[in-house]
Structures are given as C-alpha cells and as structure tokens.
Amino acid sequence: MSVNVAVVGATGAVGEEFLRVLAERDFPIRNLKLLASARSAGKTVTFKGQTYTIEELTKDSFEDIQIALFSAGGSISREFAPAAVKSGAVVVDNSSAFRMKDGVPLVVPEVNPEQIHKHNGLIANPNCSTIIMNVPIWPLHRANKIKRLVVSTYQAVSGAGAWGLYELEKQQKDFAAGNQITSEKFPHQIFNNLFSHNTTIGDDGYNEEETKMVKETRKIFADPKFMLTATCIRVPIPRAHCESINIEFTQPITPDEVRAILSKSPGVKIVDDPQSNTFPMPLAASGQDLVLVGRIRQDISRDDGRGIELFVSGDQIRKGAATNAVQIAEKLV
Fold first, then answer.
1. With 0-12 CB in 10 A as exposed, 13-18 as middle and 19+ as buried, what is 147?
2. Contact between 155 and 233 (Cβ < 8 Å)
3. Percent of the chain that is helix, strand, coil (3-state, to 5)
4. Cβ distance 330 to 69 under 8 Å?
5. How confident is the model at residue 162 (pLDDT cuts 50, 70, 90)?
6. Residues paired with 201 in a beta bridge
7. Average pLDDT, whole number, for the chain?
8. CA distance 19 to 32
9. The pLDDT of residue 1 is above 90
C-alpha cells in the first residue's frame, strides 16, 4: 500500500536523512510533500531522480497526507502536529515535545513495536542516545532482567544540529590558520575539548539529556522503576554517538552469553576484536543503521558474575533519528 508522505523540516540534517532513508528502504510513497520554514520555501530537492520544491509549513499543509515525519524542533511540533493529526495524518515526531505525554507511544521498533498501533495520531521518536542504548540493552534485559544500568555517553556535535558541525569545522580551520577560536552556540570551545552535554542542568544535578535517557527508557521498557543513571558528554566528533554501559543483571551472566544473545538480536552488530584492538568507533558507525557493540567483558569489580561492561556506537542521525522514524512508518503501512 503506497501512502502520501509529508516531511516537516525537510532542509535540516535529520530531514535530509529522512529522504535518504526513505529512498534506500524504498518506502511506498504515492505523493511526497516537503515542508520547511518560509526562508527555505522555493528551494528544490531531488528525491529518487525527481525534483521537489520545498513548501512553507502551514496548518493547512496536511490535506490528503497519511504519514507526516516531523523533525523541526519541539516548538514546531507542538504548533503544527495537532493540525496534521486533525487532517487525518499519523505524525511520527522526532522532537521531545510529546515523548513523555500519556497516551503517546514512544517507540523503538526493536523493543516495543506493539505500541505503534496504540496511537491517537501521534507517535514519538525517542532521544538518539536512548535509542542507541535501548537496541542492544533490550534483548539482554529480556534474557536476564537488568537490576541497574550506568551509562556514560560521548555525543557527536551533529546531535546538536547542522550548526554543531559548522562550529566544530570552523574552530578546526581557525586553529589551523592560527586565528582566535570563538564559540558561537556551544557554551565552550568544542575543538580539542569536551564538556558536559549542552542542555540545562536540573535541580537534581542531571542535565536534560541525562534525564531524557532515564525517563524515556522507563517508558519504552514499561518499567517506571527501571534503575538507570546517565552522564552525557559532548565530544569533538562530527557524527555517531558512543556510550559506555555498565550493567548489573539479576542472575550471573558471562561475556560469551552476552555475545550469543546480541549476535541474534535485530539492529545490532558485534564489533569486538581484542587482538586487533578493533571495537565500536564513530567512523565505522557513521552512515549505517546498526548499533555496534563491543568491549564485552565481565565487570571485575563484582565477584558474583552479575556485572557486564559494554561499549557501543551508533549513528544518531540515522538509527538515532531518521531510520527509527521510518521503521515506525513502515509498520504503520
């Protein structure tokens, strides 16, 4: 069944990736509408050999649209997604606007696909770091319930949007030219540096990114008491996030058992070669949809065999955003 599709935020980093993923996966599109702000209206985009003109997003943009893929920020989603739903479209939203709203499914297709058809016109795409963690963690949790999880992230600048890439590149060029390095949007210099994720710190000391990982995972896993703590860091890498994950299981588990589970899990690729020191890296994860998992080892701080360490890497623009949304859309049709 082919459907009419709208892409909102079509000129942004994730919007452009939406189009790439839709083409690669040969999504069944009857008619395609590309929507963005007034300043982008009139620009042209090529999709599968055909030229499309960007239209200005309005509340009347969604007539005859069945699926609307949103990636234009929370304020745009809050303003325009209800109009899309009212017009009869199902919205798959990549912003944080509706993720924690009761009645809105928050979906990673490898984890909770059964939630997709429980929508009331809105389905939320989780945070990129949450998705990249959940894909390999869920099959382990199903096999041997996780008691507690500690994650530290190393997040690429493109997770902040196209301007993050621009700022890193400009600082690299200024350094090479001997010019003064300035920070325009990031709170600190990102070149030759790293810092706590550039989101607001709450009263509990956790930044918004860390809180998202905790709350979203609990909703996706349907376990409001799932024990998870996170530390999120921005690093001077263009693309693909990495995460160091320490897991405490209910029952003892060995690295070989973890490898056996993950080798059969959807969306996961094991990259774990100590002899050549080859493990998950952003360079390898960029441009693909699999979450790379390696450094699989027993936690030597425990003597009960219930601790495992992992290191993962995933493309936050693809599986962490565009691909996850398109996978949801595929299950809708």
1. middle
2. yes
3. 35, 25, 40
4. no
5. confident
6. 207
7. 97
8. 10
9. no
Does residue 260 surpass a pLDDT of 90? Answer: yes
Tokens of 162: 């196209």
DSSP H stretches of helix in the chain: 13-24, 74-86, 128-143, 162-177, 208-220, 255-263, 282-285, 323-332
Q: Distance (Å, rounded) from C-alpha 316 to C-alpha 333?
A: 24
Q: Residue 329 CA to chain centroid, in angstroms?
A: 15
All structural domains of the chain: 3-126+321-332 (3.40.50.720), 130-316 (3.30.360.10)
E strand or H helix at 249, and its extent? Answer: strand 241-249
Per-residue pLDDT averaged across 153-171, rounded? 94
CA–CA separation, 99 and 112 (whole Å): 14
Percentage of the residues of the chain whose pLDDT score is greater than 90: 98
Q: Point out the residues that are catalytic.
A: 128, 241
Per the document, the length of the chain is 333
Cα(189)–Cα(208) distance, integer angstroms: 20
Name the one residue in this structure whose structure tokens are 């699926």.
Answer: 67
State the residue for tokens 């982008």: 40
Q: What angle do CA 251, 257, 261 make, to 5 degrees?
A: 105
Q: How far is CA 59 from CA 7, 42, 152, 234, in A?
A: 14, 18, 40, 35
Predicted structure pTM score: 0.96
DSSP state letter for 120: S
Amino acid sitting at position 5: V
DSSP 268-281: EEE--BGGGTB---
Q: 10 Å Cβ neighbour count for 199?
A: 16
Q: Which two tokens stand for residue 33?
A: 């509408």
- On the question of pLDDT at 161 being above 90, the answer is no
The whole-angstrom separation of Cα 109 and Cα 226 is 19
- The pLDDT tens digits for 40-77 are 999 999 999 999 999 999 999 999 999 999 999 999 99
